[in-house]
Amino acid sequence: MGTTTVARITVVAGDPAASDEAAQKLLKELHDLPEIIAVEPATVPGTADGARGVDAIAVGTLLLTMAATPEVLGGVLTYLVDWLRRPGNRGSVRFKVGDKELEVSNPTPAERKKIVDAFVRELRRH
Question: Are strands 56-67 and 92-97 parallel, antiparallel or unpaired?
Fold first, then answer.
């Protein structure tokens, strides 16, 4: 891992509208975290026939730029899991860095720590 890393966060909350709404709520909260360098809605390349396509927003997906340290990665993952456990938030969150992906839905606090620690250890090996 370099000095910064980009993670792809996808919120899956039932249907596309609910996923997008949940991702927008999360986007606003992530802007307030000091560990986050940048966060924005992810886009997918447009595919208009014969013309330059317009990029479309990837439903429920955010791109998050942060420092590539185990502490920051672990802190962001812990925040995401805690966010999911709050009243009104439902579904799951997929967190992807490079080719490594973690999906969590509603683990207990003990499971959360094991999951986050194992994922951060896996990222450190690459």
Answer: unpaired
How much of the chain is helix, strand and coil, in % rounded to 5? 35, 35, 30
Query: Sheet of 4-12: strands edge to edge?
Result: 36-44, 56-67, 4-12, 92-97, 100-104
Grade residue 55 by pLDDT with cuts at 50, 70 and 90. Answer: low
Give Dmax over CA atoms of the chain in angstroms.
53
The verdict on pTM exceeding 0.85 is no
Q: Got the DSSP string for 53-70?
A: PPPEEEEEEEEEEEE-SH
Strands (E), 13-121: 36-44, 56-67, 92-97, 100-104
Contact predicate 74/117, CB 8 Å: yes
